[in-house]
Amino acid sequence: MKKWIPFLLAATMLAGFPAIAQNAAPEIPFDSAANPLTMPDDIYLGEVGGVATNSRGDLFVYTRTGHPTVTLGGSRNFAHGGSRLFQFDRNGRFAREIGKDLYGFMFAAQVRVDPQDNIWVVDQMTNMVIKFDPQFRQVMLLGRKAEAIPIPARAGGGGEGGGGAGGPPGAGRQQDVFDRPTDVAWDAQGNIFVADGLGNARVAKFDRDGKFIKSWGQKGTAPGQFANVRSIAVDAQGNVYVADGGNKRIQVFDNNGTFKTQFANVGNAQAICITSGPNQVLYSSDSNPPNNIDTAGEIYKMRLDGTVIGRFGRAGKMLKEFGTVNAIDCRNENVLYVGEVGNLRVQKLTLR
Amino acid sequence: MKRYSTTVCALALVLCAGAASAQLKATITNVPEIPFTSQPNFLQPPPGEYLGESVAVATNSKGHTFVYHRTAPTSKLWEFDQNGNFVKEIGKGYYGFEFSHSVRVDPQDNIWTVDEGTNMITKFSSDGRVLMVLGRRPPAVVGAAATRTGPNPPAQKYIFCRPTDVGWDPQGNIFISDGYCNNRVVKYDRTGRFLAQAGSEKPGNAPGEFNLPHGLQVDGQGNVWVADRSNFRYQVLDNNLKPMRVIANLGVGWTVCVSQGPHQYVFMSNSNPNGNTPGSWDITGEIYKAELDGTVLGRFGRPGKLAPGFQVVHMMDCRDPNQIVVGEIESWRVQKLTLRQQTAGR
């Protein structure tokens, strides 16, 4: 017997971050298109976990649509549903749903498109990273969805890592078992880097065939440690940029996880994106906490050495304001797609 | 096999009603009866489909009726035309829909839903696009939680706890009654920024405090009418949420409606308690019509399973003060009531 469980939670908000604008970077003027996406009448975006474009300008949105189904009455509770992946054409018109009722879709964390136009989906609840080829076939899976979920659930992420006895908190197991992963990125060789995440606090590296290579990080505030790992990007040299939002910094590692530097002047880094091309720049969102629009919210444009070029936007509910940005697509340096948790929408920004 | 929230809620209401039945009865006397006729079932759902608990009804300026009802798999928002014919479903599968509590239509014909399952208030355009959301649905990734016991956690500016209703002043400021596990009224500007609140997470019975603020409307002067249900009263607040007046002689304060036009009336419902506790039909179920100054003009209706009886009136639409659309919890029904004009002198 299947029943829909309202996930009523009394006090599960993310802790508020006392975000403070930390520098007087120049304001970058920008516009936001009204209604950039055309939706069918019977489909609504929920909280947007991810938004990404492919090389043809198609747009992919991975969104929390809500209403996961939980089966009650057995010896265990089985759950599925709650998130959907949509494709839009380059003009923002709805094209199709990908992976309808997919076993791995429950709580959207992120979608990214790699240089070969494969579509990668990260799910925070099934703890899976799913690779679709450009024809939307499932071609690789990392992680495994839990067979059953407990109700009431465990407390939110941040508990002990899965390292077994003696493993440091958040370090995770040395394999592809994730705890609320948030993001995925690749280097020029196709190695895969998974941001893992809000339960664990590590980066896991796999080769292009999905074989586990190593992971680094654990809960903490020292270099190489993370409060949580919210977003990840890799530059053309293979350096790995990790949004350590809870510690209000971006950490930079070399390709093997050796700490190189950190940028601590851009607030609560929750979504980052590195442009392609010879002069790469980094966008990073100082996302406001979901329970407050009176703080933070701006997005920074930076050089890869951490120099801030400028900033734009603030938290709020109107166009050109942001509600807890969780995703930035920066395939075009001056035309950004931004996915918001708080406002259940995607904005298309044109920087002037 | 029941929804956890529904089960707990229903149980609490029964206990509450049983313990406080003495206060259910309105103490006002000599109120004239307003004769009325009922058009039950004037709404025509799609073939083979049914209304669930019809807790929320509203009309727009074109006479369309919106019903945000509790059904399966989640609550649904249905639009009907002026003849009661089904037009469309709005928000199918929408993230902010789980367990309906209110729907209201603002002067620009935007449709606002209040959902006490997701703790979200959503502003839809008249053609059904999401224009603004207030509050946040607790993220599913941390899973279901047992119903909390003990004191409510501190109320937050932008997070609700089972909110109940929404209204606007003539400037477009937004007022929200919040709710079952906060006990406050919150004011936002038209862009959704927090301005003020009255009450807090704690229940209280002083003026400006609330114990389950269950319904809310704003009159043309910008004063805020609140059905303060578990305090068995209504409160009127000024535009800055300072308490102005308490109305405590109309029984339990379930819901309130303010009519439109130059001469506004207020309708207040002493709804019969859920579960139809013994004796409750004798002392509850009527709706009062009053002037904005509080003068009660008349009353109409009584409990009953069959129309024109009421089964826990949860919400009223009174765009036209002589044509009241009533949504009921326990009859899964929407009635359109036509009030006959009262004699002069009232």
Describe this structure in words.
The complex is a heterodimer of chains A (352) and B (346). Chain A has no helices and 29 strands. Chain A is globular. Helix content of chain A is 0%, strand content 41%. By secondary structure, chain A is an all-beta fold. Chain A has strands at 2-4, 30-32, 47-53, 59-64, 69-71, 78-80, 83-88, 94-98, 108-113, 119-123, 128-132, 138-142, 181-186, 192-196, 202-206, 212-216, 231-234, 240-244, 249-253, 259-263, 269-274, 281-286, 299-303, 308-312, 314-315, 321-322, 325-332, 335-340, 345-351. Chain A has a domain at 31-37 and 107-155 and 170-351: TolB, C-terminal domain (Neuraminidase, 6 Propeller). By secondary structure, chain B is mainly beta. Chain B has three helices and 24 strands. In chain B, strand 7 and strand 8 (120-124) form a beta hairpin. The radius of gyration of chain B is 18 Å and the shape is globular. Chains A and B meet through loops of A and strand 9 of B.
**H-E string of chain A:** EEEEEEEEEEEEEEEEEEEEEEEEEEEEE
Query: Considering DSSP H and I runs of 4 or more, what fraction of the residues of chain A is helical?
Result: under 10%
Number of strands of chain A: 29
From the N-terminal CA to the C-terminal CA of chain B, the straight-line distance is 51 Å
Main sheet characteristics of chain B: 4 strands, antiparallel
CATH architecture of one domain in chain A: 6 Propeller
What is the terminal-to-terminal distance of chain A?
A: 55 Å
Structural class of chain B: mainly beta
Q: From N to C, what is the helix and strand string of chain B?
A: HHEEEEEEEEEEEEEEEEEEEHEEEEE
Count of helix runs of chain A: 0
Cα-based radius of gyration of chain B, to the nearest Å:
18 Å
CATH class of one domain in chain A, please? Mainly Beta
Number of distinct beta strands of chain B: 24
Taken as a percent bin, the fraction of beta residues of chain B is: 35-45%
The largest beta-sheet of chain A arranges its strands as 2-29-28-27
Q: What overall geometry of chain B do the principal axes of the alpha carbons give?
A: globular
Strand order in the sheet with the most strands of chain B: 1-24-23-22
Q: Greatest contact pair?
A: A-B, 59 and 49 residues
Approximately what portion of the residues of chain A adopt beta-strand conformation? 35-45%
